[in-house]
Amino acid sequence: MSKEKQILLLYAENYSQRTIAATLKVSRNTVASVIAAAKRAGLQASQIAGMEEKALTALLFPEKELEPVQVMPDYERIHRELLRQGVTLRLLWEEYSDACRETKKPPYMYSQFCKHYGDYVEKNKLTMHVQHKPGDKLMVDWAGTTLSIHDSVTGEESKCYLFVATLPFSMYSYAEACLTMKQEDWINAHVRAFSFFGGTARMLVSDNLKTGVVSHARHDDPVMNRSYQELADHYGTALLPTRVLAPKDKAAVEGTVGQLTSRIIAKLRDKRFFSLAELNRAISRELEVFNDRPFQKKEGSRASVYAEEELPFMKSLPPRPYEFATWKAVTVQLNYHVAVDGQYYSVPYAYARKKVDVRLTNNVVEAFYQGTRICSHRRLHGRAGQYDTNPDHMPENHRLYGEWNAERFKRWAETIGPSAKEVVDRLFASYRVEEQAYKGCLSLLKLADKYSAVRLENACKLALAHVPNPRYKNIRLILEAGQDVSKPSNKKVSDAANSNGYTHLRGAAYYAGGAGDES
């Protein structure tokens, strides 16, 4: 029953206007206006009970019939528009209001606009796409339950970990098994997930695991792992880690992990797999069934909703997939090379003794100084101690000798003297691989810049007299002690023990125990 009819019926029973307002929970002004309208229309109490509510309202307030009717929005179009990136109900209501004013018709207020939209969604059994939009987020996580593979020879069991990625709009999911939860497996699983989806989302939502997030303080921006940030930059997506201890921030993937645990992990629990590839093929088959399974409360499946509604909003993949990279901070050696995993790569000689960041992929080595790339090389594999030297990185005087090789060092030593040449020859003879001697030879010959070529030649001669295979350190200590400039003495050993005129240099026989045998 309408409020107007209730007011008039209570008034006919001699209730006061204050009592009527309190009973019906309306204002006293409303009660007074209805009673005044009934008196103007000459209505009797006996007439009110039998009148239709609509007719009663028209009789009491005929001016309302002349008011323009509010325009009902096109909620079918509004529901589609909400799927688009950045579109909100507030924005659509503002556009609807502007259109109503242009036609000089009254719009619904925002609260009524939202209520009618909710009624439309409920009536048509749709999902209100307010929290998640197509192509907006991709949520990733590790499943807590592990799988296993067995060695075909020993039967030894190894654990595998299930990586899961879910698009919360369509709930379309990807899963694969990895041998570890380390950074390389984490990054490569993302790369294969993007390939599976055929596109990337605007944001990538993950836990605060160390392979992705270095630190995430409560009131500061998160510090992302460098390789993980590179992955995001390569695919044009933004990293958005969840709040610490807030799993509801990625509830979609948490729920999917639970479902995949029963649909895949539990289903494969009694089967034995002898390789990671074999296990992942089985996971792929079960995943296809999982994504194609029809929804219980709405039409379609994860795969159909993704293909029809979400795929058009996904960002395109780059021309080439991301290649996993690690970073290392190293110091450029005096010979303007950096040592990485037992191999040596040249950088421009101006960066000698400076710290640089080295980026390593399976195929490429790049060096960066203060964020600027200064060189790149094809990565060396195989035996340790290989050198990759770009002639453009060498100083002008070094280029005169051509590429680094043993002949170059021997010619350089000849300019100093025969003893220096002999030391260099013995250095090369003591190594299995020629390149292993380069660093020692370079350090040795550079001593001439500090102590002069004459002193270096004398030190080499003195070292050869006492050490079978002198090294850089032996000769440097001789030069630092000044033994190469000491004058020889004709005194006997017994007298020399009481003299401070020169320093004794013990031979190899002393350290081998010869001195003890003589005594």
Instruction: Give unreliable regions as ranges.
Output: 490-499, 515-519
Query: Which structural class is indicated by helix and strand composition?
Result: alpha+beta
Residues in helices, as a percent range: 40-55%
Mean pLDDT: 81
Count of helices? 23
The proportion of residues in beta strands is: 5-15%
Report Rg: 42 Å
Please tell me what the overall shape is: elongated
How many E-type strands? 15
Q: Distance between termini?
A: 126 Å
Largest sheet: 6 strands, mixed
Short structural summary:
The chain contains 23 helices and 15 strands. With 519 residues, the chain is α+β, with helices and mostly antiparallel strands.
Describe the structure.
This protein has 519 residues and is an alpha+beta fold. The chain is 42% helix and 14% strand. The protein is built from 23 helices and 15 strands. Strands 1, 2, 3, 4, 5 and 8 form a 6-stranded mixed sheet that branches. The chain has a 4-stranded antiparallel sheet with strand order 9-12-13-14, with no helix packed on it. A hairpin with a 2-residue loop joins strand 13 and strand 14. Helix 15 packs antiparallel against helix 16 and helix 17 (438-445) packs parallel to helix 20 (472-481). It starts with a helix and ends with a helix.
